[in-house]
Specification:
The complex is a heterodimer. Helices cover 44% and strands 9% of the residues of chain A. By secondary structure, chain A is an alpha/beta fold. Chain A has two domains: 25-350, Thiamin diphosphate (ThDP)-binding fold, Pyr/PP domains (Rossmann fold, 3-Layer(aba) Sandwich), CATH 3.40.50.970; 357-396, no CATH class. In chain A, the strands form two sheets. Chain A has a six-stranded parallel sheet, sandwiched between helices. A two-stranded antiparallel sheet of chain A has the order 5-6. In chain A, helix 3 packs across helix 9 (255-272) and helix 6 (164-177) packs parallel to helix 7 (196-207). The longest helix of chain A is centred in the first third of the chain and has 26 residues, at 51-76. Chain A starts with a helix and ends with a helix. By secondary structure, chain B is an alpha/beta fold. Chain B folds into two domains: 2-185, Rossmann fold (3-Layer(aba) Sandwich); 198-323, Rossmann fold (3-Layer(aba) Sandwich). Chain B contains twelve helices and 14 strands. Chain B has helices spanning 6-20, 44-48, 60-72, 91-97, 101-104, 135-139, 152-164, 214-226, 245-255, 270-282, 305-308, 312-323; strands at residues 2-5, 24-28, 53-55, 76-80, 115-120, 145-147, 169-174, 182-185, 198-201, 206-210, 232-236, 239-241, 258-265, 291-295. In chain B, the strands form three sheets. In chain B, strands 3-2-4-5-7-6-12 form a seven-stranded mixed sheet, with helices on both faces. In chain B, strand 10 (206-210), helix 8 (214-226) and strand 11 form a beta-alpha-beta unit. In chain B, helix 9 (245-255) packs across helix 10. The longest helix of chain B is centred in the N-terminal third of the chain and has 15 residues, at 6-20. The termini of chain B are far apart. The relative contact order of chain B is 0.12. The chains are: A alpha/beta, B alpha/beta. Chain A binds chain B through residues 81-82, 132, 140-143, 146, 158-161, 191-192, 194-197, 222-225, 229-231, 291-292, 296-297, 353-354, 356, 358-360, 363, 370-371, 374, 378, 381-382, 384-385, 388-389, 391-392, and chain B through 29-30, 32-34, 37, 54-55, 57-62, 85-86, 88-89, 125-130, 266-267, 296-299, 301-304, 306-308, 311, 313-314, 317. The complex binds thiamine diphosphate and magnesium ion. Thiamine diphosphate sits between chains A (111, 159-161, 189-192, 217, 219, 221-223, 284, 288) and B (29, 58, 60, 82, 86, 89). Chain B: Keywords: Oxidoreductase, Thiamine pyrophosphate.
């Protein structure tokens, strides 16, 4: 393998006398698949998943699906303002997180609640954020689904797309520099991979030897825009090669394959101090968000085709065939989780909102004079017109 | 005349412009077949084909860079940035390229055909990243024009002017009024001049200035102040750059008082520019300090949106304070 410096040197480039314009990718990049849609194990190698790890992934996927179903309907009932489901992509997110260590930093886009589920984010924590109440760690400042948890090494979500990609390179550089035995995984959609930040992030991670896993969920759409209108090359994977980033493409609806690929990526990234790009081929079965109706841009037939590749059913069939799964136990878990979500919805929506202090805190480490002045005049104004500001009037009277 | 909401008026302006001139092209994220996340570009692809209304990859710097090139070649791109909050990846292309294309080439090249449309502003529970009002950043840059309509009639007339006039224009659309603002709009082709303010209501005691969605807020405050016998003159700036200094200063000479209201944070917001200019033009006419009622100097919040906003009550209080100065 030639190293970067050698490649840059013109003396090492073979010459040719043919005017040979390369018109296609040299080879289409294959996709790692270990389970077929019937949950049949396809490889001759031993399975990368133990019973315990397979079941934890399966249960986390079930919980994620349930949470999404409940919260989409909570949004329809007007109980929360917005939601965004991960349906169809649970394996890509959950099984990749499962292949990491808890010390590894996760930088997500917004559709990766399954990673939090796997790491043990509680129903109560989900609801506090979704209802923007005073227990929300973001202090009610961000829209629903903008989770973040420092103790779980899950970086707070930011809506502007792609911004976390170069940040993940920098974070991983810092982990390596300070001697942490940890890396950073960065999730993003194939749409976000069009942003300039994607190119900056991959190139910098490669040149600066950052232990970063760039995990692309290629789910077919960026809101209404299909991949055919997003890029003309061989998916996102082909770009990794262009940047000198080790790359693998994986069946994103196959939890086993996602797990195996991410496990291998983690090993290489830490051992060789380098980034790895994973492109997970999957499908956004959900609407883009609760503000979206996909019937305007894709066919029901297409959705049905992908429902048949459901990632949860696939791993579940495998677990059943291995006699690993106690279906009664799973049913009880689902029933109990549903009840827990309902109870937590009821609790979280009754909590108070963050205090008016939290409107002004954290803009800077210390509240500057000019903001303190604005706060005092706002407080005086609210005291004068308490009925106009019901969320904060109570605490001031 | 037809009843339209703000979105329909924008859609109608785009159709009008595209029918009249085949150099007008519409591009942006999800603007094609789908018609944009707010549906401002509905049916354009149907009528004009993929060549004239198309989805771009998800890259704002690319959208504006591409549109700059397209405009330099002589076309008239109308580029949509899905939310004003996501215009910043394109900041370099706008500030260093769009705005300076003509000047730096001695007038040989320009991207005057470019219009950038983007929804801006709060009031929709959008939190930090679906609520910001970035107009002041762009007003700081010589070479582009900045326009903000408040109702469907203005939106159509101003957008048609923006598309046709020889300078690049950023057209900020108040998204909380997209469906809420409804009014009569001529079905014919008409233009409203850029750089002109609109006197919404005449009055004698104090001049209130705003633009976009905040105009209805100062109108509400003016109504409340009327109960105290205070007569407010309400002015909608419509264009932030260049802005109509003459209309505002004539009004302030008459009333002796000025209040400016905008959603963007107070510090270095466009109200500061208006205040500085008017105090120098009208110094001897002023009977009270110029007041600014603006967003707080915090990121745009979510649950405290009401507290953050420069609403009618805060504006009313400031009117009273100015009158009692
Ligand atoms: C910089 C920026 N531009 C535009 C948007 C609006 N937006 C939100 S999600 C989205 C599509 C993202 O698609 P993709 O990256 O494929 O992720 P997916 O939703 O499919 O998971 C767009 C355009 C944004 N959030 N940030
Ligand atoms: Mg996508």
């Amino acid at each position: 393998m030639t190293n970067i410096n050698e490649r840059n040197h013109i003396a090492h480039i073979n010459t040719t006398q043919e005017v040979n314009i390369i018109s296609d990718g040299l080879v289409a990049i294959p996709m790692l698949q270990l389970l077929d849609t019937n949950g049949e194990y396809l490889s001759h190698n031993p399975s990368p998943l133990t019973q315990e790890s397979a079941l934890k992934i399966l249960y986390s996927m079930h919980y994620t699906r349930l949470l999404d179903e409940r919260m989409v309907s909570a949004q329809r009932q007007g109980r929360i303002s917005f939601y965004l489901a991960c349906t169809g992509e649970e394996a890509a997110v959950v099984a990749s997180t499962a292949a990491l260590e808890p010390v590894d930093m996760i930088m997500s886009q917004y559709r990766e609640q399954g990673a939090l589920v796997y790491r043990g984010y509680t129903t109560a924590q989900f609801m506090n954020q979704l209802f923007s109440n005073k227990l929300d760690p973001n202090k009610g400042r961000q829209m629903p689904i903008h989770y973040g948890d420092k103790t779980l090494n899950f970086m707070t979500v930011s809506s502007p797309l792609g911004t976390q990609i170069p940040q993940a390179a920098g974070y991983a550089f810092g982990q390596k520099y300070t001697g942490e035995a940890a890396l950073t995984i960065c999730y993003f959609g194939e749409g976000a991979a069009s942003e300039g930040d994607f190119h900056a992030g991959l190139n910098m991670a490669a040149v600066l030897n950052c232990p970063t896993i760039f995990f692309c969920r290629n789910n077919g759409y960026a809101i209404s825009t299909p991949t055919a209108e997003q890029f003309a090359g061989d998916g996102i994977a082909s770009r990794g090669i262009g940047y000198g980033v080790k790359t693998i493409r994986v069946d994103g609806n196959d939890a086993m394959a996602v797990f195996a690929a991410t496990q291998a990526a983690r090993k290489i990234a830490l051992a060789e101090s380098c980034p790895v790009l994973i492109e997970a081929m999957t499908y956004r079965l959900a609407a883009h968000s609760t503000s979206d109706d996909p019937s305007g841009y894709r066919s029901a037939d297409e959705e049905v085709k992908w429902q048949e590749k459901d990632p949860i059913a696939r791993l579940q069939k495998y677990c059943i065939a291995q006699s690993w799964l106690d279906l009664e136990h799973l049913d009880a878990y689902i029933t109990q989780s549903r009840a827990e979500i309902l109870a937590e919805v009821k609790r979280a929506e009754k909590e108070d909102y963050a205090s008016i202090d939290d409107l002004f805190a954290d803009v800077y480490a210390v509240l500057p004079k000019h903001l303190d002045t604005q706060k005092q005049s706002l407080q005086a104004h609210i005291k004068k017109y308490p009925e106009a500001y019901p969320k904060t009037a109570r605490e001031l009277l | 005349m037809a009843q339209m909401n703000l979105l329909q008026a924008i859609n109608n302006a785009l159709i009008t412009a595209m029918r009249a001139d085949n150099k007008v092209l519409v591009l942006g994220e999800d603007v094609g077949h789908f018609g944009g996340v707010f549906r401002a570009t509905s049916h354009l692809q149907e009528e004009f084909g993929r060549e004239r209304c198309f989805n771009t990859p998800l890259v704002e710097q690319g959208i504006i860079g591409f549109a700059n090139g397209l405009a330099a070649q002589g076309c008239k791109p109308v580029a949509e940035i899905q939310f004003g909050d996501y215009i910043f990846p394109a900041f370099d292309q706008i500030i260093n390229e769009t705005a300076k294309f003509r000047y730096r080439s001695g007038g040989q090249f320009d991207c005057g055909g470019l219009t950038i449309r983007t929804p801006y502003g709060g009031g929709i529970a959008g939190g930090h990243y679906h609520s910001q009002s970035p107009e002041a950043f762009f007003a700081h840059i010589p070479g582009i024009k900045v326009v903000i309509p408040r109702n469907p009639y203005q939106a159509k007339g101003l957008l048609l002017s923006a598309i046709r006039e020889p300078d690049p224009v950023i057209f900020f659309e108040p998204k909380r009024l997209y469906r809420a603002a409804v009014g009569d709009v001529p079905e014919s082709d008409y233009e409203l001049p850029l750089g002109h303010a609109d006197i919404v209501q005449t009055g004698s005691d104090i001049t209130l200035v705003a633009w976009g969605a905040q105009v209805e807020i100062i109108q509400e405050a003016a109504q409340r102040a009327l109960g105290d016998g205070i007569s407010c003159e309400v002015i909608d700036l419509q264009s932030i750059l260049p802005w109509d200094i003459a209309t505002v200063s004539t009004s302030v000479v008459k009333t002796g008082r000025l209040l400016i209201n905008h959603e963007a944070p107070l510090t270095a917001g466009f109200a500061a520019e208006v205040a500085a200019e008017i105090q120098s033009q009208c110094f001897l006419s002023l009977e009270a300090p110029i007041m600014r009622v603006c967003g707080l100097d915090t990121p745009y919040p979510l649950v405290h949106e009401k507290e953050y906003m420069p609403d009618a009550l805060k504006t009313y209080e400031a009117i009273i304070a100015t009158m009692n100065y």
